[in-house]
Amino acid sequence: MNKYELALVVNAKVEEEVRTAVLDRVKGYIERFGGTITDIDEWGKRKLAYEIQKMTEGFYYFIHFESESDTPGNLEGRIRIMDNVLRYLCIRQEA
Question: What is the pTM of this model?
Fold first, then answer.
């Protein structure tokens, strides 16, 4: 099992219920593809480095999980088409 970190930037203009639903959906995808979530770090609303889709702020989440090597590819394919996700990045952490 490899360790990964998923950085997720969610639209700041949506309600808290929608942000929670996006986060729950991502967690469900990780578990469906055989991953185990170890930690979720919520940074809250932050200013973006540059404007994305005419937005200057987003909610930042960092999800740490363990999974096999094919999970991040499957996960990114699902996150790519999700509404309210501005940016994402999944990286493998060093052992």
Answer: 0.91
